[in-house]
């Protein structure tokens, strides 16, 4: 929302000791010139993200289980994906 990200390197589990049970990447995040959020919504968005990642759950769906119904979760994921795809399309240069 405030930045664009891309995977620089896909790391192997054997790159770490002890070997983790998760996949890892080296991620590049660059601040967007024009954020997808209005300035007044940044604090609320930050609280939302912190809520999801502060829970010790294996994924965000479980972290937000007490916040969203199954239908609301599906809709929010679909909306987020559309927003992301539209933002990426507007960044493309047509030659």
Write up what this structure looks like.
This protein is an alpha+beta fold and 95 residues long. It has two domains: 1-35, no CATH class; 37-95, no CATH class. It has helices at 42-54, 60-63, 70-91; strands at 3-11, 24-31. The radius of gyration is 16 Å and the shape is globular. The two termini are 27 Å apart.
Q: Which structural traits does this protein have?
A:
single chain, 95 residues, alpha+beta, 2 domains, two-stranded antiparallel ribbon, 18% strand
Blueprint of the fold:
Blueprint: E1 3-11, E2 24-31, H1 42-54, H2 60-63, H3 70-91
Number of domains: 2
Number of strands: 2
Strand/helix succession: EEHHH
Could you say which structural class the secondary elements and strand pairing correspond to?
A: alpha+beta
Strand content: 15-25%
Ends apart, CA distance between termini: 27 Å
* Gross geometry: globular
Chain oligomer state: single chain
Rg measurement, Å: 16 Å
Number of helices: 3
In short:
The chain has 95 residues and is of the alpha+beta class.
């Amino acid at each position: 929302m405030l930045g664009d990200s891309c995977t620089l390197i896909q790391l192997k589990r054997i790159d770490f000791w002890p070997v983790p049970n998760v996949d890892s990447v080296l991620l590049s995040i660059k601040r967007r010139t024009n954020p997808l959020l209005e300035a007044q919504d940044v604090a609320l968005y930050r609280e939302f993200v912190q809520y999801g990642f502060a829970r010790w759950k294996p994924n965000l769906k479980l972290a937000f289980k007490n916040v969203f119904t199954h239908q609301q979760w599906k809709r929010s994921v679909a909306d987020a994906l559309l927003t992301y795809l539209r933002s990426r399309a507007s960044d493309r240069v047509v030659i």
